[in-house]
Amino acid sequence: MSRKIQTALISVYHKDGLEDILNELNHLQIKFISTGGTKDFITSLGYECETVEDVSGYPSILGGRVKTLHPKIFGGILYRRENESDKKQVKSYDIPSIDLVIVDLYPFEETVAEGGTEQEIIEKIDIGGISLIRGAAKNYKDVLVVASKEQYAPLLSLLKEKKGASSIDDRRYFASEAFKISSGYDSAIFNYFDDGQGSALRVSLNKPKQLRYGENPHQNGSFYGNFDEIFEQLHGKEISYNNLLDIDAAVSLISDFDETALAILKHNNACGMACRPTVKEAWDAALAADPVSAFGGVVITNKNVDKEAALAINEIFFEVIIAPSYDKEALEILFQKKNRVILILKSVNKAKQKLQFRSVLNGTLVQEANDSIQYRKDIKIVTDVAPTEAEVDDLLFANKLVKHTKSNAIVLVKNKQLIASGTGQTSRVDALKQAIEKAGAFNFNLNGAVMASDAFFPFPDCVEIAHDAGITSVIQPGGSIRDAESINYCNNNKMSMVVTGTRHFKH
């Protein structure tokens, strides 16, 4: 069912982009109704504009809190054009027909993000605007609604193409966009008032990015978020669902390290990582841990990539590299592979989420992000033998790494280099055996290495196996009713052990 616009109600906060719309509407001889600043903007362009006050017969009151909230305004939007009773009533009460509503809401989220005062934030809760959006969207069979300046471009195209007319499908599309805006706006307001209490879950994410597929080719996949806020993509193919999972894991891991670090990830786990004076040295050490798994992985570093590092990294195939910056010569080398994704990490902080979500059964699990990092002050020596300074450095390195490794997890480290890890095993013993076997496969000597566990040892068997492999120091949360057995074994075998009191399960 086609509808021709005769009258437009326009009330927007941001005026940028509006001029082209007004010009086209005026060209189509569409009548304007507006309020305050928007009315002034329209008349400044030389267009006639009737005020809302003229239509309603009522002034703007309460400091502008009440302007459009009037039956003559909402009656003009909500009346059903083919309903005889509605038509009689609007005629009886001299209610004008409003066919197009253009609204841009007060910037509530922006005001919160900018640290506005309580009063400033409250005054940015739009009442009239959100009501206009809901009313016009509800009556999409008769009214066209534009709820954001983001919709100006499609509106302008529609006006030019159909000369002020619209189909039912057009109006339904704009109504859907309007409810998307209003629901997100309400979610933001609720989350502000809820203040992290978690009394209900309201999440609003825009800008969906359709991915090639999900985890597997037979699954559809999308990303909802602002990737460009965190990264600048310099090169390579479109990023996939699995790439995003690995990128997320990589950024989370590297954000825990201040000194020069480089990690190689595969399937959300680090298969190589090291801290060294230069990126090139860190790459060499990280790659040595598992050059087989590194093939096709994600590389991330927290320092600038120079030519020397790029030459070394370029020798193997990998899908993604992430760094805060690159030398020009480094990029020339890395650009040699057509599909390789090269990312600049612009902001670690913007990548961090306060809450983590995971769908289960017919609901959603929500938890605080695991931002806990243990330092020297956080560890407690529980054995007769204390770890050396070098071992403490390795223990803290290993503890950061095990935090980002899928449980059950064991990580073996020596000289701030990941030697091997056991990941995702059903028992801690299996995880340790996997790590030891892997270390042997790549010719690492475990004498003097340290071991990190993401949870406590329920029995002393792990420290026994570790000692037999040459491991000399252990870091673990502690808290088992049989901690004493593991500690006694360490004491009897001149091993050191520290506990953190913090478990790092990652299921």
Percent range for β-strand residues:
15-25%
Strand order of the largest sheet: 10-15-14-13-11-12
- Total of DSSP H or I helical runs spanning 4+ residues: 21
Residue stretches low in confidence (pLDDT < 50, at least 5 long) are: none
CATH architecture of the largest domain: 3-Layer(aba) Sandwich
Shape: elongated
**Helix content, binned percent:** 25-40%
Structural class: alpha/beta
| Tally of separate domains | 3
By CATH, the superfamily of the largest domain comes out as Methylglyoxal synthase-like domain
Radius of gyration: 31 Å
* CATH level 1 class label of the largest domain: Alpha Beta
Topology, number of strands: 23
Give the topology, please.
Layout: E1 3-4, E2 7-12, H1 18-27, E3 31-34, H2 36-44, E4 50-51, H3 52-56, H4 71-78, H5 84-92, E5 100-104, H6 108-113, H7 118-123, H8 128-138, E6 144-146, H9 152-162, E7 165-166, H10 168-194, E8 208-210, E9 222-224, H11 227-230, E10 231-235, H12 241-254, E11 261-266, E12 269-275, H13 279-289, H14 291-294, E13 298-301, H15 307-313, E14 320-323, H16 328-334, E15 341-345, H17 348-351, E16 355-360, E17 363-368, E18 380-381, H18 389-403, E19 410-413, E20 418-422, H19 428-441, E21 450-453, H20 461-469, E22 473-476, H21 483-492, E23 496-499
Parallel strand pairs: 2-3, 2-5, 3-4, 5-6, 13-14, 14-15, 21-22, 22-23
Antiparallel strand pairs: 1-7, 8-9, 10-15, 11-12, 11-13, 16-17, 18-23, 19-20, 19-21
Helix pairs in contact: 1-9, 8-10, 13-15, 15-16, 19-20
